[in-house]
Amino acid sequence: MNKLSCEIVRDLLPLYYDEVCSADTRKSIEAHLATCEHCTADLHKLQQSSRLPFEVIEKNKQESTALANFKGYWHRSRAAAFARGLLLATTICGVIGLGYVGLFRWNITQVPSSVIKISDVSLLKDGKIAYHVKLTDGYRVNQISGKSEGNGNFYITPMRPVFKTKTDAELGLGNSYELIDLEQLNANHTDPSTQIKAIYYGPKDDNPILIWKQGMQLPPATDAVEAQFRDRD
């Protein structure tokens, strides 16, 4: 015989379902449910009505977690894309900058001998060699390079960037009197045992112009030429 009536069991079913009733009460309810189909059916209804919100909450929880994960992935993807874009932009700017410097600033192009005119080669009173150089193409010369070969030949070569610029200066590296200190060149030579035997102006492989060679007798410099270098001192 059941100790609890159906009305009392129905009132206690929510507490039983939530597992907040005492152990003795729980045993009494379970004993009643074992013999009462109506109360058992009420318990099933209670379970069904409570299960749906739990499932919905769980589903929403999963969707919220998935959304949070996607949001985190989205932010990480945007950050990675921004970093890649920044790196690419920096690389492109670097290449453009190096390209500009290489084409417009670095003096890597030799001026051809065909536009070089050498005149007034003479010997100064102090033993140095004087000469006048003029480039006839009207473009600026940015640098003069000197290189000694192992056979005793020394080459003086004017240099420019790949993209040359017009010059509006009357005087400069492309139109001036220059001098050669042969004694100093020999002292600075990589191999002192090999003395400089000839000096050329222009690229080595482009018919450079001979300025002086060993045994050549140069005319003495005029007073005007001597004055050019006295004024520089």
Automatic annotation (TrEMBL):
Keywords: Membrane, Transmembrane, Transmembrane helix. Residues 6-39 form the Putative zinc-finger domain. InterPro entries: Anti_sigma_zinc_sf, Znf_put. Coiled coil: none annotated. Gene3D superfamilies: Anti-sigma factor, zinc-finger domain. The chain crosses the membrane at residues 86-106. The keyword Transmembrane helix applies. It holds the Pfam family zf-HC2. Belongs to the zinc-associated anti-sigma factor (ZAS) superfamily. Anti-sigma-W factor family. This is Anti-sigma-W factor RsiW.
